[in-house]
Amino acid sequence: MPKGLYTRALLIIVVPMVVLQSVLAFVFMERHYQLVTNRLSEAVVREIAAVVYALENYPQDADFRLIEEMGSRALDMTVSVLPPEPLPPPRPKPYFDLVDHNLSREISERIGKPFWIDTIGRSRFVELRIQLKDKVLRVVTRRSQTYASNSHIFLVWMICTSLVLIVIAMIFLRNQIRPIERLANAAESFGKGRPIEDFRPSGAREVRRAAQAFIEMRRRIERQLEQRTTMLAGVSHDLRTILTRFRLQLALFGDTPETAGMKRDVNEMKHMLEDYLAFARGDGGETVEGTDMSLMLEELEEEAEIIGAAARSTFTGDPEVLLRRHAVKRSLMNLVTNAARHSASVTITGRHADGWLTVTIDDDGPGIPANERENVFRPFYRLDEARNQDEGGSGLGLAIARDIARSHGGDIQLEDSPLGGLRARFRIPG
After folding, report:
1. Which helix (H) or strand (E) is 362 found in, with range?
2. Which of 73, 239, 298, 349 is the most exposed place for a label (fewest CB within 10 A)?
């Protein structure tokens, strides 16, 4: 079955109509048309049988003028009597011709004499010749007298009316499906973090209810994010004020081994606080904009080289992509710096095709065990063995990276790298 709602709904309308018309056409052609044709053919042969009976049982004038007048005036046929001669050779029988079949059967049953019939020589007329004892009776009658000539009008009207109704149904059905498509596009855009413009409930009552429910849901989510951001901004301000006091007090104590350790702790607390706030705040406050991904990958390559790894980057496809630039760069930066800290070589590959943006980061480091690759995305989770993605950090780097990818409608997967280390695959709709 088709996957689209419009196509399925159209089939629900068209298929019953086609089946119904097929049944009607079959019943009409098989019953009504054949019955009427049989009756008309029977009536014509009955009139010809009366002429044959009159010729054989009543005296006639020398030129058979009365018989010919009776045929033209009373029977609406052209009747003529020919001298005795062999009948013409049989003409080829047409396929599926009820006129030829019915006339031949009726003449054989009612008249029972040798005959010759032509139903295809002249399309508007039917010619019959019947062999009598000492003469040949020739009858020419209109073809419309032998079959139901207006049956095709019924089929033409039925088909034309059906086509008009199907076109009208397609137009109205498209208008009913369009609000559902707009609702689906709005939900998809909201899921990818893109702005929704000029969306309002429309269509049938049920579709309007679904659209209104979506709008209310979006408002609640946006209000919740706004409240959380406001709260976190206040918390950030208060905690940074306290950390600033600590740093000022440590500066007054002078440079001693004890103060050096405390300064390191304060700096670590500062970085941890920034990571906590970034993870809790997400990227909801940033707007979507066109971004040159090839340029971003070059910036990531430079960051990896600053850390100390040999890095190279490539990009294929259209580099212009709609996304939250700073959020995506932060997500990729977490992946690249994580790879650079634990390897000597990093390869960054970008591809924009088939509606998806895919960035893969390969390294030749120790990698991550397969059974731990999902756990490392959990907030505050750290590896005890192999390599630690957030060594000296808060354990939120990969969690923030995946959260940003999923807020764009994508995801991040960890795999084995061809370089021998780890491959991080960042993939979002583009």
Report:
1. strand 356-363
2. 73
